[in-house]
Amino acid sequence: MAISVRKARFQDATAIAEFVNQAQAGDLVDRLQVAERFSQVGFLLAESDGDRLVGLLGWQVENLVVRVTDFLIAPGVDRVVVGELLVEAMEDAGRELQAEAAMLFWPANPSQYLIEYWLALGYDLRAVADLSKAWRQAAAEWKQDANQVMIKQLREDLVRRPI
Question: In terms of Cα–Cα distance, which of 153, 161, 157, 160 is closest to 65?
Fold first, then answer.
């Protein structure tokens, strides 16, 4: 099965809503909600066989830090392969935007599998207090009560003064 990753387009909103609704219980997401989210989040889509949606990654870049906002992979596909492809595409796009790091916040009570999954993708579990000042500020802007984050440095040459 060949997997390809591409940037989502506005016309993908219906397919994204259907994919999210299949993956989660509870409140359903509609096309309009997804379309509104396009103003806040960029989406990468993983597709198999050209058009079957098998993965989704939502992300934002602010203050030279990428934040993963959404991450869903369909059941029945190789989660490691699809996840690696989505994360690599997000990291590459972040590097193009000169981002220094990619950051992920945990859901409530993350499983050991989830922690190990992100560790295998090259992310480190770090205390927010141990991050550089700029990264701490980015973490606080996104989630004030975060004590720990998964983080991966994307470039060696960090910005030391405003561009």
Answer: 153
* Rounded-to-integer distance, Cα 84 and Cα 80, Å: 6
CA 29 – CA 50 distance, rounded (Å): 24
Instruction: Say whether 88 sits in a helix, a strand or coil.
Output: helix
pLDDT band at 161 (very low <50, low <70, confident <90, very high): low
pLDDT in tens, 64-108: 899 999 999 998 899 999 999 999 999 999 999 999 999 998 877
Strand partners, 103: 67, 151
- The residue extents of the domains of the chain are 3-153
* Measured distance CA(56)–CA(145) in Å, rounded: 26
From residue 111, alpha-carbon distances to 34, 88, 114, 115 in Å are: 27, 22, 5, 7
Structure tokens given for 102 = 């990619």
Q: Which CATH superfamily is domain 3-153 in?
A: Gcn5-related N-acetyltransferase (GNAT) (3.40.630.30)
